[in-house]
Amino acid sequence: MAKNGSSLLHYLNKSTSTSILFTKDTVEDSSIVSNDATTAIGALILGLVFLLGVPGNLFIIWSILARARQRSVTTLLILNLACADGFLMCLTIFFLIYLARQNWDFGNPMCKGLFYLCNTNMYASIFLITLMSLHRLVAVVWPHRVAALASKKMVVRAIAVLWALVFSISIPALVFRQVRYDHDEQNNTRLVCASNHSRSRYVVYQYTFETVVGFLVPYGVIVSSYVCILRRLRQTKFRRKVRSEKLILAIVVMFGIFWLPYHLNNIMQVVAEQFDDSSPTKKRLDMVWQPSRAVTSTLAFISSCANPILYTFAGKSYIREDGIAFMARLFEGTSLDTGIKKGIGLKDALSFSSTGGNAVKNEKQTLV
Fold first, then answer.
1. Given this model, what pLDDT does residue 18 score?
2. Burial (Cβ within 10 Å: 0-12, 13-18, ≥19) of residue 35
3. Closest of 167, 172, 181, 166 to residue 218, by C-alpha
4. Taking CA atoms, which of 35, 89, 110, 320 is between 20 and 30 Å from 117?
5. How far is CA 24 from CA 90, 199, 270, 289, in A?
6. In whole angstroms, what is the distance from residue 292 CA to residue 152 CA?
7. What would you report as the CA-atom Rg of the chain, rounded to the nearest whole angstrom?
8. pTM given for the model
9. Residues 338, 73: contact at Cβ < 8 Å?
10. pLDDT score, position 14
11. How confident is the model at residue 181 (pLDDT cuts 50, 70, 90)?
């Protein structure tokens, strides 16, 4: 065993060009491959996510770039979201191999880079959905101001700032993530890609920042926006109102379901760091968040393959008429989000902003 451990350490030092030394002050995060059962579950989920997410998001990108004749603000945001999700889905193959082999085979640069890109996707997805929600809020609640407050030019600038912000605030994942050697339950030595915090306060900083900036604040904005939208929808009597509300709630709830466990896991780890190592509370918390890391992380990946399913649901009425171009027709209809000034009825704009475009049939109606 000593010989094997020495060989692994030699390989690790060679691949990272630096020695990893752990002192008594070093805080090591538990690896996501530290538990056989949760690792197997995580690998199964990732496999399904890869099979659904890659073709689903590539189909969205193709539909917008190759088949959609009109590209609205909403379409532009959906395109960016699909690119972010599709790119992440392509990276899942590395994590699938990691979970299946329970050993990191790709070296330290890939360890840092891949988890950094995962963090950028987390922030990009929630920020793009937030921006989409704010644009929909303006289109529904203040339709006559949408051209001034949420024009395509302003949204393009907002997206550029968003991506710059995303790549900046994801740097902690690049700094703290590192390859190290670990021992499994059978005391076998292996390489893992895990967070390596030299001080407890760095654990608190990283995961508190992720949860607050990457979930609580933007998700609060999303929920508040849709509360205002639903109130406005209820004030307008039209026959597709119930379906509109259901789709809006599905978008919000689905995102929360898949990301909430990950951030709850972060919170438990942060709380555990407030206690001494000998504390029974810390031990109980560690027994919960450590084995759950693999499952909660892979559940978060599902949110990146869920959007194509929602869009398919929203555009199912187009499938029989337009065939493979049904999603392009769905996205073309989003031009009506900012089409109030062209004589589209407020009822139709409200209905379309949630369901994806039945207002096309009523384009000539006047304002109510």
1. 38
2. buried
3. 166
4. 35
5. 38, 10, 19, 22
6. 42
7. 23
8. 0.78
9. yes
10. 44
11. confident
Longest CA–CA separation in the chain, Å: 81
The average pLDDT across 21-45 equals: 64
pLDDT at site 55: 92
Q: 138 CB contacts (<8 Å, ≥6 apart)?
A: 145, 146, 149, 150
CA angle 73, 78, 83 (to 5 degrees): 130
> Which one is predicted more confidently, 290 or 267?
267
**pLDDT score of 71 more than 80:** no
By the 10 Å C-beta count (0-12 exposed, 13-18 middle, 19+ buried), 255 is classed as buried
Measured distance CA(225)–CA(145) in Å, rounded: 16
Q: Which domains does the chain have, with CATH numbers?
A: 2-338 (1.20.1070.10)
pLDDT in tens, 94-140: 998 988 888 899 999 999 999 999 999 999 989 998 988 888 888 77
User: Would residue 191 be called left, alpha or beta, if left means φ above 0 and alpha means ψ between -120 and 50 degrees?
Assistant: beta
Choice between 144 and 109, residue whose per-residue pLDDT is larger: 109
Work out the angle at residue 199's Cα, subtended by the Cα atoms of residues 18 and 276, and round it to the nearest 5 degrees: 135
Helices marked H in 102-216: 107-141, 146-149, 152-169, 171-176, 200-211
Confidence of residue 70 (pLDDT cuts 50, 70, 90): confident
Least confident of 36-45, 108-117, 203-212: 36-45
Written as one string, the DSSP assignment of 211-261 is HIIIIIHHHHHHHHHHHHHHHHHHTS--TTHHHHHHHHHHHHHHHHHHHHH
b or e along 343-357 (b: 16 or more beta carbons within 10 Å of the residue's beta carbon)?
ebbbbbbbbbbbbbb
Assess whether pLDDT exceeds 60 at residue 15. no
What distance in Å separates the CA atoms of residue 93 and residue 97, rounded to the nearest whole number? 6
Contact 270, 210 (CB under 8 A): no
Integer Cα distance of 229 and 148 in angstroms: 19
C-alpha span between 152 and 103 (Å, rounded): 46
* CA 289 distance to own-chain centroid: 20
pLDDT value at 243 more than 70: no
Residue 261, token pair as written in the block: 């466990």
